Input
Amino acid sequence: MKTIAFFNNKGGVGKTTLVYHVAWTFADLGFNVLIADFDPQANLSSMFLDEDRLAELWPDGAHPDTVLGAVTPILRGVGDVAEPHIEEIVDSIGLLVGDLGLSRFEDKLSQNWPRCLDRQEDAFRVLSAFYRMLHTAVATRHADIVLIDVGPNLGAINRAALLSAEHVVVPLAPDLFSLQGLQNLGPTLRDWRQGWKERMDKAPDDLTLPSGAMIPAGYIVLQHNIRLNRPVLAYAKWMKRIPGEYQRSVLGHQSIRQTNLDNDPNCLAQLKHYRSLMPMAMEARKPIFHLKPADGALGAHSSAAQQCGKDFRKLTKAIADKCGIKLP
Ligand SMILES: Nc1ncnc2c1ncn2[C@@H]1O[C@H](COP(=O)(O)OP(=O)(O)OP(=O)(O)O)[C@@H](O)[C@H]1O
Ligand SMILES: [Mg+2]
Output
């Protein structure tokens, strides 16, 4: 099971949109993909599912078919993680559906983090609930790849979600906020990795637990919609600083290799702002590169949608290379 989380504590940098498009690209390449929406905003679930289906999955009362439903026995203290419902999007894409109520799990995860140091088995069950949910779902779906989407913060839900990931891809925007985000993200990932390592020494032997590797796979820079925003020069300043900051903060390197984005091996892609194609794709509930003339992708839009397919195949290949996934 190859598990990749897309994470940055800076919000709105395109994490969810990336997970959505990368999932479709892997599926188009013949992979069986499982996606986990561990963001309590549940934006990824609403990209995949229409409102009618979401209303069925989120009725008043209990939500047995979401990620919250799967952890509810743990939350109520009456059992272990339940077998998760996997929403089939297409044959090769299964979704663990997000839930706005998932934030209720945050406190439980926080309280149980220190308890692992006292060798409390139930605490390990809480902390590994996401991982064990993924493990079961991968076996059910025979999934090759798991992609995880999370919200923009450094809280306990994200710690548990990230612990489940072997690799972490960092989406960024070329601005001060993203640079500052990296300065928080890197030390936090190291802290979580180290904290989990300490706890693993005290873990029960017979529980399936994550390794907590969280290996940084690289970053993706989402280009701003330059037309609507500030002049290009302002972005150039921040873009110049990204390669060094990533090496320093995320990789923890002492000596920094001077390089620019175009030559930086840690830069997985500089992704275009697809402007009106993105809302068109969201409206059609399709990735941009599946848009058809009937969806409104006519003329220049049609060739831009095809170009987007090429951009995502290139990006997905870069991610696959970094994560040791062999493409056909
Ligand atoms: N490459 C792109 N081209 C055009 N629009 C984009 C692109 N990537 C993201 N967007 C738009 O930017 C907005 C934020 O994207 P998204 O929700 O993916 O960010 P996020 O990092 O997941 O946000 P959050 O931190 O709230 O989870 C959305 O409206 C999305 O449609
Ligand atoms: Mg998001």
In short: The pocket of adenosine-5'-triphosphate (ligand 1) is lined by residues 11-17, 39, 41, 43, 151-152, 222, 271, 273-274, 278 (CB under 6 Å). The longest strand covers residues 215-222. Residues 176-200 form the longest helix (25 residues). The chain has a mean pLDDT of 95.
